[in-house]
């Protein structure tokens, strides 16, 4: 069964900067096709031009936007987040109807996948109780290196994650990132990880099958 599920997944990497409305429309169309059985599941890696997205819990008081970046309604869970060059965005479109109807397990497995990948790059990342996202110890405190924001429609997942490879960190000051003001954001570049995007993408793909197996409640491949 697992081999069949792996064969039904497409891995896509889009170069350059993808406009957010284009990505959102593409994601919406693909999720509908997956639900109807007309297209395989998809993990889509890309970058966006500088912009902010608003989740379903976004609070207008947390948007300052002095640079005047465009702001888009995302339809995912969560609050405001930033996307821009130097940040790897991953949209994960999986059919949980086939993989177990467990949204909590999906989010936990997604976090675990990213934490393992960052570990392969020498970054000790972790979950922080009560705070969504991917975290690291940095300069005597904790800093956020990655964001998670998902939606599930008729048991097909949309949206996914972003990992800060080397974005302009000052751009995060235009919002309260994910509603968390008391902790900073950081990046792989700031932590001294060289050739971060290429290494991250490679490790992410290498860890894909373990991520998929974890959705079945299994820790590793048989």
What's a quick, concise take on this entry?
The chain has 6 helices and 10 strands, in the order αβαβββββααββββαα.
State the name of the first-level CATH class.
Alpha Beta
Q: What general form does the structure show?
A: globular
Count of domains: 1
CATH superfamily: Bira Bifunctional Protein, Domain 2
**CATH architectural type:** 2-Layer Sandwich
Poorly predicted sequence stretches spanning 5 or more consecutive residues: 1-6
For the record, give the distance between the C-alpha atoms at the N and C termini, rounded to a whole number: 12 Å
Using brief descriptors, characterize the structure shown.
222 residues, alpha+beta, BirA Bifunctional Protein, domain 2, seven-stranded mixed β-sheet, three-stranded mixed β-sheet, 28% helix, globular, disordered N terminus
Fold and architecture overview:
- The protein starts with a helix and ends in an 8-residue tail after the last helix.
- It contains six helices and ten strands, in the order αβαβββββααββββαα.
- A hairpin with a 2-residue loop joins strand 7 and strand 8.
- It is globular.
- With 222 residues, the chain is an alpha+beta fold.
- The strands form two sheets. The chain has a seven-stranded mixed sheet.
- 28% of the residues lie in helices and 31% in strands.
- It has a single domain (2-214), classed as BirA Bifunctional Protein, domain 2, CATH 3.30.930.
List strands and helices in order, with pairings.
Elements: H1 2-7, E1 9-17, H2 20-36, E2 41-47, E3 51-54, E4 71-73, E5 80-83, E6 87-93, H3 96-99, H4 103-120, E7 125-128, E8 131-138, E9 141-153, E10 156-164, H5 196-206, H6 208-214
Helix pairs in contact: 4-6
